[in-house]
Amino acid sequence: MTAPSRPPQPGTLGLIGGTRLVRLTAASERTGCDIYGKCEFENPGGSVKDRAALWMIEAAERDGRLRPGGTVVEGTAGNTGIGIATVANAKGYRTVIVMPNNQSAEKMQTLRALGADLVLVPPTKYADPEHFVHRSRRIAEEMDNAMWADQFDNQANRQAHIDGTAAEIWDALDGRIDGFTCAAGTGGTIAGTGIGLKQRSGDVIIALTDPFGAALYNYYACGELKAEGSSVAEGIGQGRITGNLEGAPIDTQFRVSDEEAALAVQELNTGQGLCLGLSSGINAVGAERLAERLGKGSVIVTILCDSGFRYLSTLWNPDWLAEKGLPVPTGLRKPH
Fold it and tell me: If you write DSSP's letter for every residue of 11-66 in order, what string do you get?
């Protein structure tokens, strides 16, 4: 489906947003619905996080927190850092990215290729002062003319989706949408897109799709931030109500296992030629569940967050899949 037209903008930054919708064929046929994925891998930095990066940096420019020759500092699982480095390069800023050292090698290589100063830290709980978020904040505080992006609580993140993602979905479908779902990392995508769609129609159902190991499913289901199980998905799963999640219009919630998500991305790869990351699989399963709940003829949209080429050493590596107990697609299996 063609994306809504936008006024031409100069340079790389004009390529952010305006991504297209693709119908998820097998899931649509199983449910009797039209299920669409928004192709966020089309952004120049390769993921949905380009949107938040642009809005956060431009908000900091407007309020004077970031001046010419400055540095953008952020703690991230990878995609936001790549988006920030992409935008910062286009605007002439330096980038310092703090990332847990258990994220994919491809993300680390991409950040280094973009010229970011990459600081790797052990994965740890948010309460630990060495958590990547807290470490990045301290680095920014110790630098001159540096902006800490603060993607989790900086509501310019969700404003990107109110202004951009929601408007694009509504326009592309001429307002014919019954439900939207995606997972939450910072919460910016689901909150912002949800707010933007609800502003246009209060009848659009907004559903959280959570991986195991995150606490939001139980929060929206029964009011308690309680995590169960675990997930290997990168960049999603949250244990607190971030600034971006405050007031998010969540109507219902689903929880998806890594195995279900892996099978979903494998189906999209072999059936439609869409090679995606695990978070996209989680979103696709959630979209199918929402379609089943809303009934035949419903129109559902979710987010295809990034390309599977960012996870060749993990999700598309047969040894890694076997180690994690996840299904290995036939094409990846090694000959005996």
Answer: TGGGGSS-PPEEE-HHHHHHHTSEEEEEEGGGSTTSBTHHHHHHHHHHHHHHTTSS
Band of pLDDT at residue 334, cut at 50, 70 and 90:
low
Residue 3 has pLDDT above 70, yes or no: no
The first and second tokens of residue 198, run together, are 């609800």
Per-residue pLDDT tens over the stretch 106-154: 999 999 999 999 999 999 988 899 999 999 999 999 999 999 999 999 9
Q: Which CATH architecture has domain 12-44+165-324?
A: 3-Layer(aba) Sandwich (3.40)
Does residue 68 contact residue 100 with C-beta atoms inside 8 Å? no
Q: Indicate if 49 belongs to the active site.
A: yes
State how far the Cα of 325 lies from the Cα of 220, in Å rounded to an integer.
29
**Token reading at 278:** 């695990």
Tell which residue, 157, 160, 176, has the closest CA to residue 301: 176
Among the listed residues 272, 336, 283, the one whose alpha carbon sits nearest the alpha carbon of residue 306: 283
Do the domains 12-44+165-324 and 48-148 sit in the same CATH topology, yes or no?
yes
The catalytic position among 49, 91, 226, 334 is: 49
CATH number for the region 48-148 comes to 3.40.50.1100
CB atoms within 10 A of CB 247: 13
Domain-wise residue ranges, the chain: 12-44+165-324, 48-148
- Computed over every residue of the chain, the mean pLDDT equals 94
How is 144-164 classified by DSSP, letter by letter?
TTEEE--TTT-THHHHHIIII
Tell whether pTM > 0.85.
Answer: yes
